[in-house]
Amino acid sequence: MAPPDDDDGSDLESLLRGRSFEDRTFTGLEMQEADLAGKEFAGCTFVGCKAQESRWRGCRLEDCVFDRCDLTQARPAGMVAGKLQFRGCKLMGVEWTKLGRFVNLSFSECTLQFASFLRLSLCRTQFVDCTITEANFFEVDLGEADFRGSSLTGSVFRGCKLRKTDFSAATGVFVDPAANEAREAIVPVESAVLLAMHLGLRVAGYSGPAAKSEPRTGRGRRK
């Protein structure tokens, strides 16, 4: 990382003018459509910032936190993200792709509606108490990821690695094993039932009473 800038200001002007920042806190900045390409942040915190449609290509963030920020339709493609935490943030419509080799993200109490995660390794990623409705996960390694408390209604998983992914305390989960590597994924009972019904099975207690099989009768003799 380049040496941090001498200017220790944390206002928008300093942010846009500088290139390298360390242990800074940026609070309440109006960063809509800001171009932050090529900047480097280490140990920085963004609090209550409005950064809709902001651009982060070539930006490096190490051990940084976004707290209650609005990053709707932000463009992180090309970002290098190492230990990047999002807490209570709005991240609607964000396309997460091309984030470097060693991605380390975590999300808690975030809104990720309409987001897309494409061709990423997100092993052990935390998605805790998030709204992740109508989102897409395509060719993502989510091994041992944790979705506890999150809503996944309408979200699509395709070509994903889901070994030991924990959906047990999530809602609205539908994972098709035919379209994903889902061995040892942990799903709630409701999701298992939904999958069974999708495959044409009837589940007693969920899809009406199971049909009773009638005993076979042998062909009687003619008298």
TrEMBL record:
**Signal peptide extent:** none
One Pfam family name from the record?
Answer: Pentapeptide
Gene3D superfamilies membership: E3 ubiquitin-protein ligase SopA
Identify the SUPFAM superfamilies for this entry.
Answer: Pentapeptide repeat-like
Q: PANTHER family, per this entry?
A: BTB_POZ DOMAIN-CONTAINING PROTEIN KCTD9
Name the UniProt record assigns to this protein: Pentapeptide repeat-containing protein
Species of the source: Nannocystis pusilla
* Biological classification of the source: Bacteria, Pseudomonadati, Myxococcota, Polyangia, Nannocystales
